[in-house]
Design brief:
77% of the residues lie in helices and 0% in strands. By secondary structure, it is an all-alpha fold.
């Protein structure tokens, strides 16, 4: 009964997500099924395992609230000031509207690597992307896949230094920094981006050959990309992103160039460097705050309604944070079952190479929860120390575990996938084949390649 209940809880979560049921409600109902069928104490299961335990929903929400909020506020300011559109329009002028898939991927990648929350990027890019699709006559399903490639793959899990929640979770759990396993991440990002763009362009040519055309949905409002008067110049639009990235990267570069005795000095600049390196949550939040303040100072539209825009951005952070936290709460319940304990022992005791065992562990937990951040948080709390004891370097554990979490998390019940399809007005039947190729198969292949590089030293 316990094993059936555990499998039933996962199946119920998947089924409810595919039916479009709110992911928070789906996580609570699935958690209750697991609690009852596994004989867990009901009160403790809801208030501790699901809510406030080490892997509780509200424990996670409290720890990462500032990061989600800072990213969402920054993204809202960049969107409402038309700075994000200005960046995309600059790419249009450089590449041409017929390169709509390249433009979408590059713009989304630049924004998410700069710290803008993926959900916010999708909202910001969608109206502009529709206009590009109309001009280039590209099916919407491929635009959805391009959004997923730019906003949900290499910038979230592979590129070193990104302030994504996945990168921060690994840094907090392992005591590393956001640049750990940097060369492995660069290799993985190159593979994800290269294969992703090859697939998208190949599908674009096949769609044209087969007579597929752009068909707007009934709720689509197509933006006017010809009115550049309301958009700031590209040189100004890019400055907040540059400030965010440089604020995150500069302490690492300075630390690498200074001697340890110099860093140990009590002078305030060196104490600030140590603070920046040792605060994987607070420092990216400060970087995003600086970027937000600069954007407000530069762009009159944002300056006029700064508090209103910041308030709307805070609101943007609520649902992604709560949705992610609810899925993690479900995982917190699952980790207290006998089945999960046996799974943990099985993974650690199997005669598999440590890297392959780690990949399997992270992938399965992320697949169960339908969340890369949820799966990664559970892995860091329960299994990561064992793989460090096997001799895998912290940098390799950091980067490979993040990349592994960003593969099978994107099965059809993934909350981010459901949200993206809802925003774009597409069904799983229409778009998931392409999205699955971009977010599951290619990242998994890239992770295996990186594991091979790591095994070679």
């Amino acid at each position: 009964m316990a094993y059936l209940g555990l499998l039933g809880g996962v199946a119920l979560l998947v089924w409810l997500a595919l039916r479009g049921v709110n992911i928070v409600l789906a996580a609570v109902l699935s958690s209750m099924l697991v609690i009852v069928t596994n004989g867990l104490p009901v009160a403790q299961g809801i208030t501790e395992y699901f809510s406030f335990g080490p892997l509780g929903a509200f424990t996670f929400a409290g720890k990462f609230f500032l990061l989600f909020t800072a990213g969402a506020v920054f993204g809202r300011v960049m969107g409402d000031s038309h700075a994000a559109a200005s960046i995309a329009l600059a790419l249009v002028r450089r590449l041409g509207a017929h390169r709509a898939l390249w433009i979408t991927t590059l713009a989304c990648g630049l924004l998410t690597y700069g710290g803008v929350v993926a959900f916010v990027v999708i909202f910001a890019m969608y109206p502009l992307g529709l206009r590009l699709l109309e001009q280039a006559d590209i099916p919407k399903r491929l635009f959805c896949a391009a959004l997923a490639l730019g906003a949900g793959t290499f910038t979230l899990t592979a590129l070193p230094g990104t302030p994504s929640v996945q990168n921060v979770i690994a840094a907090v759990g392992l005591g590393t920094d956001l640049f750990a396993g940097g060369w492995l991440g660069l290799a993985g990002a190159a593979i994800m981006f290269g294969l992703g763009m090859w697939y998208l362009e190949r599908q674009r040519l096949l769609a044209a050959k087969n007579g597929e055309h752009f068909v707007p949905g009934p709720m689509d409002r197509i933006a006017n990309t010809n009115n550049d008067g309301q958009h700031p110049r590209f040189a100004l639009a890019i400055m907040p992103l540059v400030l965010v990235l440089s604020t995150i990267m500069l302490p690492r570069l300075l630390t690498a160039s200074l001697h340890e005795s110099t860093l140990a000095s009590k002078a305030w600049p060196f104490e600030l460097l140590q603070f920046a390196i040792g605060q994987p949550i607070v420092w990216p939040c400060l970087a995003l705050l600086l970027g937000t303040l600069l954007a407000i100072a530069l762009f009159p539209v944002a300056r006029r309604d700064a508090l209103l825009i910041a308030g709307n951005g805070t609101q943007d952070a609520v649902m992604p944070l709560i949705n992610t936290a609810a899925v993690i709460g479900f995982g917190g319940v699952v980790t207290h079952t006998v089945g999960f304990e046996n799974f943990t022992h099985l993974m650690l005791d199997m005669d598999l190479p440590p890297l392959l065992s780690m990949f399997t562990s992270v992938s399965l937990v992320s697949a169960i929860t339908g969340s890369s951040s949820g799966g990664l948080q559970i892995f860091m709390q329960t299994m990561a120390p064992a793989y460090l004891d096997m001799g895998i370097s912290p940098g390799a554990v950091h980067r490979i575990s993040i990349m592994a979490s960003g593969g099978f998390d994107s099965l059809p019940h993934c909350g981010a996938i459901v949200a993206m399809l809802t925003i774009t007005g597409l069904s799983h039947k229409e778009a998931y084949r392409d999205v699955g190729m971009i977010t599951v198969l290619i990242p998994v292949f890239a992770t295996f390649c990186v594991m091979g590089l790591a095994s070679l030293g």
